[in-house]
């Protein structure tokens, strides 16, 4: 589990968690009384820190799994800043009272919703986008007026140490603290009675988190993973589809929750699509002709365990009859796995059973959309569904018939970059929504308020005793209102 290069950051010691939690609980009462102003100040300070530490963020990610600096800019820093700007732009509106219409039966009363902070929240982050997936929920938590403890992944120690430094430099630990550590530390944290837990990670650990949350009836947001399919029909623009699929699979070396996991292609266009994908891989990652392993634009697998897992899947697929149509080269010393396409993987091979989370793309063909739909729906609900088609009827059919957390038509990945689109899973791929207003609401209790006028109100006509007159009034109520 060693990072590729020794971490330049020293790991902080685990603080007394009970004490830290109590401090945050006490401070959260003060935060509750704040309006949008002080929250915006905190968010701006965080934004400035990100801006000033761009190089340090790039270095930490490079250290952990040789993530190219440009990719860190595009997939860690830019989405964090986008979320921040969007939140700052809408914060006043989100924190103000939201009036609702009053039905005739309650005439004279007024109703509104007012978001209040949940209190002290736990944010558990994974290793694959270790910076963005800690910062993004933190932005929502702060916007909603909460205190937060962040538990970064132990698999990316350089980023974890950097996040600790960020918290020390930007925040009072009574408001935001980072607690580094492995699952033992996570288990201790999960014993505390948090007001909300925002977890991003695997479905297996998601279940552990939900069980622990149940103990305190703590609300949860679970941002999980799974197998996200790509469907390419016979009308798709294949060159465009190939570029977007290779890009979506190639960033972070396939270690992306919404990466295209497997591809279902209409049998009539499998060969030309494959040829286009081959050309794109060469253009993106082998422009010099020296091999993808020499590319500065392609990351490594995060650690030995995951390298062996993905390399094992490749071997298993071949043993189950799949053929390697592209790539296939692996190098354990570098934890490098080439972008690899596998044709005709058996349904019971590991690449078709487990979330791949690496640069392997199994391809199966279909004849009818119903076949493709049945294949996807035979698995747990995906986090993302990708549809490549120029036929509107096919688009409608697939979007209507395949349940998924989110979807993109003629694109991959970018559904999560749209700040107005709530992001999250369905069933096995997660519970709840993140980003923008949805993220703000995840960390808020939407208090519903009804304000009645004093004195005579319509509803008093139904008070006891239930005389014949009251009964007539009730009959009228049931009939007309
Ligand atoms: P993981 O579930 O192994 O770890 C996530 C966090 O849980 C880490 O902080 C880790 O320390 C902690 N943890 C691990 N084991 C634990 C245990 N037994 N008890 C308590 N805490 C524990 O996930 P990962 O390997 O870091 O990330 C990969 C997974 O995350 C994939 O399934 C991927 O699809 C998913 N993911 C989802 C999203 C999303 O937004 N939906 C984003 C990124 C990753």
Q: How would you sum up this structure in a few lines?
A:
With 481 residues, this protein is α/β, with parallel strands linked by helices.
Kindly describe this structure.
- By secondary structure, the protein is α/β, with parallel strands linked by helices.
- It folds into 2 domains: 17-224 and 433-445, Aldehyde Dehydrogenase, Chain A, domain 1; 229-424, 3-Layer(aba) Sandwich (Aldehyde Dehydrogenase, Chain A, domain 2), CATH 3.40.309.10.
- Helix content is 43%, strand content 17%.
- The protein contains 16 helices and 18 strands.
- The chain has helices spanning 17-32, 36-52, 54-65, 69-95, 132-143, 157-170, 183-190, 203-216, 238-250, 270-285, 304-319, 350-353, 369-377, 392-401, 436-442, 468-480; strands at 98-100, 110-117, 120-124, 147-151, 176-178, 196-200, 219-223, 229-232, 262-266, 323-326, 330-331, 336-337, 340-343, 360-366, 384-388, 406-409, 430-431, 444-451.
- The strands form 4 sheets. Strands 10-13-14-9-8-15-16 form a 7-stranded mixed β-sheet, sandwiched between helices. A 6-stranded mixed β-sheet has the order 5-4-3-6-7-17, with helices on both faces.
- Helix 9 links the parallel strand 8 (229-232) and strand 9 (262-266).
- Helix 2 (36-52) runs antiparallel to helix 4 (69-95), helix 3 runs antiparallel to helix 6 and helix 5 (132-143) crosses helix 15.
- The longest helix is centred in the N-terminal third of the chain and has 27 residues, at 69-95.
- The protein is globular.
- The N and C termini lie far apart (65 Å).
- Residues 1-11 have low confidence and may be disordered.
- Nicotinamide-adenine-dinucleotide (NAD) binds at residues 124-129, 133, 151, 153-154, 182-183, 186-187, 200-202, 205, 208, 223-225, 257, 355, 357, 383, 425, 430.
